[in-house]
Amino acid sequence: VFALERGEFTVDETHPEGAYLRWNTERTEKEVSPFISLASAMWYALVSITTVGYGDVVPTSVAGRA
């Protein structure tokens, strides 16, 4: 997931425990990735492939929402 999102891991005052940040869809600012772990990313992939989704994890890009 890290390689596909092209994010960077950062630890600072805003994210004291660390967070992966990625560019938003307009590439104007960085946002926290919704995939907080490999298990979370695998769950998202499994739900996306096998169902229409549960609604708790949704794509944020224009292509993902199409």
Word description of this protein:
The chain is built from three helices and three strands. It has 66 residues and is an alpha+beta fold. The radius of gyration is 13 Å and the shape is globular. It starts with a helix and ends with a helix. The relative contact order is 0.15. The mean pLDDT is 77.
Approximate helicity band: 25-40%
- Helix/strand class: alpha+beta
Largest sheet: 3 strands, antiparallel
Order of helices and strands: HEEEHH
Number of DSSP-assigned strands = 3
In the predicted model, the low-confidence regions spanning at least 5 consecutive residues are none
Give the radius of gyration.
Answer: 13 Å
The average pLDDT score comes to 77
Secondary structure topology:
Layout: H1 2-5, E1 8-10, E2 19-23, E3 30-32, H2 38-50, H3 62-65
Antiparallel strand pairs: 1-2, 2-3
Throw out a few tags for this protein:
66 residues, 3 helices, 17% strand, 3-stranded antiparallel sheet, alpha+beta, 3 strands
In a few lines, what is going on in this structure?
The chain is an alpha+beta fold.
